[in-house]
Design brief:
Blueprint lengths: L2 E2 L12 E8 L7 E7 L5 E3 L2 E2 L14 H4 L5 H24 L5 E5 L5 H8 L3 E5 L3 H11 L15 E7 L8 H11 E12 L4 H6 L13 E2 L2 H10 L3 E7 L1 H15 L5 H19 L7 E7 L1
Parallel strand pairs: 6-7, 6-8, 8-9
Antiparallel strand pairs: 1-5, 2-3, 3-4, 4-10, 9-12, 11-12
Helix pairs in contact: 2-3, 2-8, 8-9
Length: 297
Amino acid sequence: MAFENIELCPICDGKKFIPFLICTDHTTSKRDFQIVQCTHCNFKVTSPRPDQSEIGEYYKSDSYISHTGGSKKLIDRIYLQARKRALKKKRLLVEQFAPHQGKLLDYGCGTGDFLNESINAGWKGAGFEPSTEARTKATQLVKQEIYADLSQILDNQYNTITMWHVLEHVHQLNTTIQKLSAALTDNGTIFIAVPNPMSWDAEKYSSHWAAYDVPRHLWHFSKDNMKALLEKHNLQIKAILPMMLDSYYVSLLSEQYKSPGQSFFKRYFLGFINGLVSNWKAKRNINHSSLIYVAQK
């Protein structure tokens, strides 16, 4: 298995990292992985981690629902139902900031649900997805080709690009943002949703926080980190918006990781309560469990 160490911070070019947390991969390997923190900008990075040629092995699980689109576990079925109900809400959010029925690229479109919602609402949609299994399902759903090679789509210009919980998975962080920025039209808008390690639920659950999701989550962005990254590529944040449902799902899954012997009812009760508390505390500083960054050229 090929692993890579991160020796240069992609946010500030710092070269010194200190240990932050050791987290377990609860989804596939059950191995421990280290998260380190840049001493200059505090950016948190999973390192060492599987390189781009090996990371696919860590997605081979029925419970990794963003790629498979289904799971037998109750917690994942709940998530899928919540995600389906949130599709229209996401589209309407996009339409608050971007021209309706413009040209949209859903980068990391998974099984194609949001892309399908957008196309059905009149958008000219395109999708990029590296996972073969997810790409096949997305192609069947939207009835058009889903691209696996960026060169196939980045010659085009899009007035809207969406990345729903994708950027934390991307190995080539700066290269990806640079290419997507170049693919945006003037005044184009990009929507980037990522987990927030500065949230109350992240602090509460620490190494058991489900949204660290090592080693699949390679990067762990604070608001300051995201602002600095986007500004490097001539993108300015126009709004930061919460993903309210994520705190409940993440807290529930974190309870499962923290106390696997916990009773069903206690786990779901505590997951709900802690998700509620996290959202309530986040009102002060917009530090919800997951955040959507809306940025423009």
